[in-house]
Specification:
Number of helices: 7
Strand content: 15-25%
Largest sheet: 10 strands, antiparallel
Pfam family, one: Peptidase_M23
Structural class: alpha+beta
Protein name: Peptidoglycan DD-metalloendopeptidase family protein
Keywords: Coiled coil, Signal
Shape: elongated
Distance between the termini: 62 Å
Length: about 425
């Protein structure tokens, strides 16, 4: 009896451990599937944008950068899909072992049950049960024998229920195993297709790189010209922010400190309402809305190396977001339109103030707001113009705290 209880306890612990492992694997599988769908969506968005902007593409560099982004995204997709297939392999092996254990357990339960049925058959007559009770030496012993017969009957029923439960679990595990094997085959087939697409894209990229190398000096000059123009626009935006800070000090009756005059970064003077708005803005770090309804990151914040010209690095003061022609920029957070400026080579630039934080929207036309307008989150600001260098519809988006540039990717959700 004790060995039987130990065996049941061991089986229960194994099932409990298996269940916790299964839950963890299911969570991991769900996360991988989310990542896979997100990457597939990014590739689809890249393809749509490339198709819609293709007629306006003005240089080979832009095409190479598009392909580089697409290749990296597809490589990540293949990696995630491989992880899913490997996780399914683990689950398949676990279910194979589980099926083996369940069959062994079911065989033992059936053997025990058969022995119990045989024993019950030999003493099934009511006369035998009555004689068993009447042969009791005392009332207490007769009572205990009645209880024993009830327990025996209940145990027999419990054994039957366990056999039914284990049979159903074995059937379900077999079904899960078949489904998992099918899912794994689908993932393998999808990965094979993605690998073929990846190879085709790499061949396209190699052909374009060969063209670039034929006229490398020309393309290097184009990149440097673009960086020079971006730096000029950044200086203009910095000037506008310094003017806004000076205006805030004038409004509050403050004066510039000696530290600021010595060249340190100036900061806004804040009213109580502006402090509350700045606190609200800061508390939404990582959760702010995208400044476009749909789009993808074309250039990220900071210094980066060119994908095909290893000796060339560029600096981006914000993020550049490619979107479809005719799309509008929208406010990433509520605030006040601080400044609107037409900058040569950069279209209209809108600065929205959020206390001592600012969001900047560059390369706009057909504006829908004016200076001092109070704007709400997602409110339309203006149409995004075509970038003069790439021929793409690109919004440049920047975030500042006072006069310090911040990485917008840390502020906008899932950027």
């Amino acid at each position: 009896m004790q060995s039987s209880r130990f065996y049941k306890l061991l089986i229960f612990m194994m099932l409990l451990l298996g269940a916790s492992t299964l839950f963890a694997q299911n969570d991991r599988q769900a996360e991988l599937e989310r990542q896979r769908r997100q990457l597939m969506s990014q590739i689809e968005e890249l393809s749509k944008l490339r198709q819609s902007n293709k007629k306006d593409e003005r240089n080979v560099l832009s095409q190479v950068e598009d392909l580089d982004s697409k290749i990296k995204t597809r490589q990540n997709l293949i990696k995630v899909t491989n992880s899913q297939a490997n996780l399914l392999t683990q689950k398949i092996n676990q279910n194979i072992n589980k099926i083996s254990d369940l069959r062994d357990e079911l065989e033992k339960l059936k053997t025990d049950y058969a022995a119990m049925v045989e024993k019950s058959y030999k003493s099934k007559s009511s006369q035998s049960r009555i004689m068993f009770l009447l042969s009791s030496e005392s009332f207490l012993q007769a009572y205990k024998r009645v209880q024993y017969m009830k327990q025996y009957s209940n145990y027999r029923k419990k054994q039957g229920d366990q056999i039914k439960e284990r049979t159903e679990l074995l059937k379900q595990t077999n079904n899960d195993l078949i489904k998992q094997k099918e899912e794994k085959q689908q993932l393998i087939a999808q990965n094979r297709e993605e690998q073929e697409k990846l190879e085709a894209e790499k061949k396209q990229q190699d052909a374009l790189i060969a063209k670039i190398r034929e006229k490398e000096s020309t393309y290097v000059a184009q990149i440097r010209e673009k960086q020079k123009a971006a730096d000029r626009i950044d200086k203009e935006i910095d000037r506008l922010i310094r003017e806004a800070i000076a205006a805030s000090k004038k409004e509050t009756g403050a004066v510039a400190t000696k530290v600021e005059k010595a060249g340190e970064m100036p900061t806004f003077n804040l009213t109580p309402a502006a402090k509350a708005l700045a606190s609200d803005f800061a508390s939404n770090k990582g959760r702010m809305d995208w400044p476009v309804e749909r789009g993808r990151i074309y250039k990220r914040f900071g210094t980066s190396q060119h994908p095909t010209l290893p000796n060339i690095t560029t600096y981006n003061s914000g993020v550049e977001i490619e979107t479809a022609p005719g799309s509008v920029a929208r406010a990433a957070f509520k605030g006040t339109v601080q400044q609107i400026q037409l900058i040569r080579g950069g279209g209209y630039t809108i600065l929205i103030r959020h206390g001592n934080y600012l969001t900047v929207y560059q390369n706009l036309k057909n504006l829908k707001v004016k200076v001092n307008d109070e704007v709400s989150t997602k409110q339309a600001l203006g149409e995004i113009a075509v970038n003069s260098f790439t021929g793409k519809t690109i919004l440049k988006f920047l975030v500042y705290k006072d006069s310090q540039r911040l990485n917008p990717e840390e502020w906008v959700y899932n950027m």
